[in-house]
Amino acid sequence: MSALSVNHLLGIKEVSTDDIKLILETANQFKEVINRPIKKVPTLRDITIANLFFENSTRTRLSFELAEKRLSADVINFSASSSSVSKGETLVDTVNNILSMKVDMVVMRHPNPGAGVFLSKQIDATIVNAGDGAHEHPTQALLDAYSIKEKLGDLQGVRVAIIGDVLHSRVALSNIFCLQKLGAEVMVCGPATLLPKYISSLGVHVEYNLDKALAWCDVANMLRVQHERQDIKYFPSVREYTMQYGLTMDRLNALNKEIVVMHPGPINRGVEITTEVADSHQSIILRQVENGVAVRMAVLYLLSQ
Fold first, then answer.
1. How far apart are CA 299 and CA 288, in angstroms?
2. Is 21 a residue of the active site?
3. Average pLDDT over the chain, rounded to whole?
4. Shortest CA distance to 189 belongs to which of 158, 210, 167, 217?
C-alpha cells in the first residue's frame, strides 16, 4: 500500500486526488475489519494519539476515539473546558506539555480557523484537523464522499447539493474541495445571508430555491443551522427557515426521481430536515456515522506510515 503525499491532514485543499482515493480505498479494508466479530487490529499498537478538543463535540470525538482503539493505539483525551486552557494557557504550551508525554499524533478541533496549520509548524507530531472554526473538517468530507461512492458506485458526474447554513459550516468547504477533486458537480443552496460572498469563485452552482436544487441534484447534503456561531440574525425566524429550506417527505415525493439524503449531524429534527426524511430509506445518515470510523481508521493508519 502506498503512502500519502502529506505528513498531516489539515484540510482537503492541501491533499491530492490520489491521496483522497488512497484514503477511500484503505477505508474499504477497515470497513471489513469493523464488521468482524473481533473488531480490533494491532496496526497502531506502538502509537500514542492525543485527542485535543477545544470545542464541544460528541460524534467526531467518539468516532476518532473508536477508530484509534480499533487500531490498538494508546489514546489520551483532552477537553479544553476542564483544562488549564480555561486558566489562560496557550495552545502551544498545552500541546508541548502533552508532547513531553511522548505523543506521536494529535487530533485537534479548535474554534480558530488555521489552528492546525499553526500547530503543525510549531510541534513535531502529526496533526489531524477534526474541524477548525468555520474553515475545514476534512475527515467529514472524506466520509461523506465514501458514503456517496458506496451508495452510487462512483462520484464522477454525480450532482451534490449542499443545502443550508454554508456560511458557518466547515463541512461545506471541505465537501466542495473533496467532491470536485473526485469529479462530482456541486451546488450550494440556502438563504443569501447564509451563503458566503466568495462561494461562486469555488466553481459551484449557487441556488436560492430549495425545490430547484432538489430537482437538479442526485444527493442532498443537509447542513445544520449553527445558531451557536451566529452573532446576528441571518433569517427572520426558525419557522420561516423551515418553510423555505426544510427537507420534508412532501418535497421528496414531488420529485420525479429518488435522491440520496445526507446530514453531517447533529440533526435539528424539524428544522432543516423532518424526522420522517431522516429515518427514510433515502437517508444514509446512520451509514455516514458507521463509515466515519472506517475512514478515520484509514487516515490514522496512512499518516502513521
1. 16
2. no
3. 91
4. 210
* pLDDT one-digit tens code per residue, 190-239: 999 999 999 999 999 999 999 999 999 999 999 988 654 445 466 768 88
The residue annotated as part of the active site, out of 26, 43, 48, 60, is 60
Residue from 59, 69, 205, 251 carrying the catalytic annotation = 59
DSSP bridge pairs for 109: 53
> Where in the chain is CATH 3.40.50.1370?
12-136+290-303, 138-288
Note the pLDDT tens digit of each residue in 196-205.
999 999 999 9
Q: Is 229 a catalytic residue?
A: no
CATH topology for 12-136+290-303 is: Rossmann fold (3.40.50)
87 is catalytic: yes
Active-site residue flag, 45? no
Cell numbers standing for residue 93: 504550551
Active site residue 39: no
Distances (CA, A) of 232 to 225, 229, 299: 13, 9, 37
Strands 205-207 and 159-163, how do they pair?
unpaired
What residue has cell string 500514542? 48
φ/ψ of 301, rounded to 5, equals -60, -50
Architecture of domain 138-288: 3-Layer(aba) Sandwich (3.40)
Helices and strands (H and E) in the chain: how many: 11, 9
Given CA atoms 150, 59, 159, 281 in this order, what sign does their dihedral have? positive
